[in-house]
Amino acid sequence: MSLPHAILTALLEKPSSGLELTRRFDKSIGYFWSATHQQIYRELGRLEEAGLIRALPSEVPVRGQKKEYEVLPDGSAELARWVGERQDPKTVRDPLLLRIRAAAVVGPQGLEAELRRHLGLHRRQLETYEAIEEKDFPPGRRSDEDRLHRLVLRGGIALETFWLTWLEEALAEVGEIALPAPGAAPGAGGGAA
To answer: CA-CA distance, 92 to 143, in Å (whole number)?
Structure first.
């Protein structure tokens, strides 16, 4: 996903100012695609320059007044084209996975605490997603838009559930690994994946 397409999606859902977009990103799209206030404003300028969005006319122009943007037909067409575009999955780049790999070489000192911290973070994120699901998707709410929004949320719930299961497994493995004695060579005898 790219930021311009995330912004087009959000503006098609509701014309907004840059500040409103930032707030909406923090509450929804930001769970799976984050952007700073500056990135959003920069991208709004590019999209407007490309003729994909426009600032809505203001009844009374006031200096410093926030602009509200809407998507133009070319913006809708671009978003529709992008939705059907082929894109391969991204390779996972997670520093925690790399740190575990490094622990195989230098030993797991301190790794258990970090795994527990991540476990707590993922538990809280799962609780957040489940609360959103309960609040925003009560039984019987089945419009096509709701179904697709919920599908994204269910993906987030599944990912957090995966991380909880995997982190519990990682903690069990790390808990069984004896720390090397001071001065001993760590990682002796281990194979490379």
So the answer is: 33
**Torsion region of 109: left, alpha or beta (phi above 0 gives left; psi -120 to 50 gives alpha):** beta
The Cα angle at residue 55 between residues 63 and 40, in degrees rounded to 5: 90
Strand partners, 16: 69
Inter-helix orientation angle 144-176/111-136, to 10°: 160
> Taking the chain (193 residues) in consecutive chunks of 10 residues, what is each chunk's mean pLDDT?
87 90 83 85 94 85 74 95 90 90 90 96 96 89 87 94 97 82 52 49
- pTM comes to 0.75
Question: Token pair for residue 54?
Answer: 């426009």
Separation between Cα atoms, residue 140 and residue 154, nearest integer Å: 16
Q: Comparing C-alpha atoms, which of 160, 162, 166, 164 is closest to residue 32?
A: 160
Q: Which pair of tokens denotes residue 168?
A: 């519990």
